[in-house]
Amino acid sequence: MEGEFSIFDLILKFEKKELNGYTFKIIGQDQFIRIKNTHLERNEKNSLMLQIKNVSSEIQYDNEKSHSDLLMMINATVSHELRNPLNSLIAQNIEKKALYKEVIKVVLQSKIDDVAK
């Protein structure tokens, strides 16, 4: 539902239950209201009760939570994608160092054996 409506247009739509529970943004402000309607029948009279509630803080909290959840998901994904290659590079370096030490031991041992002969 877009456009500008008078309060009477809105009441007619609420009577038809077209807009029950909808949230509206107040134009030009960061304020949101939620309107609920209840049909009352008392003493053979039909009445319409509109409940107008400021839900700005709820919507702001939901937006902040969604933003926070998105940042956490991005951080977890990026951290995981960076950690895996780094871990493999670190493991390769450790393996190379261990292999290098073994090569040095063999070379030194062969030189010692050559000197001993």
Which features characterize this protein?
single chain, 117 residues, 3-stranded antiparallel beta sheet, 2 helices, rod-shaped
Protein architecture, described:
By secondary structure, this protein is an alpha+beta fold. The longest helix is centred in the last third of the chain and has 61 residues, at 56-116. Strands 1-2-3 form a three-stranded antiparallel beta sheet, with helices on both faces. It is rod-shaped, with a radius of gyration of 36 Å. It has a domain at 7-54. The protein has two helices and three strands, in the order H-E-E-E-H. A hairpin with a 6-residue loop joins strand 1 and strand 2 (32-42). The mean pLDDT is 78. It has helices at residues 7-15, 56-116, and strands at residues 23-25, 32-42, 45-54. Helix content is 60%, strand content 21%.
Supply the helix-strand structural class.
alpha+beta
Helix content: 55-70%
Q: Report the major sheet.
A: 3 strands, antiparallel
Give the rounded overall mean pLDDT: 78
Task: Provide a concise account of the structure shown.
With 117 residues, the protein is an alpha+beta fold. It has 2 helices and 3 strands; from the N terminus they run H-E-E-E-H.
Fold blueprint:
Elements: H1 7-15, E1 23-25, E2 32-42, E3 45-54, H2 56-116
Antiparallel strand pairs: 1-2, 2-3
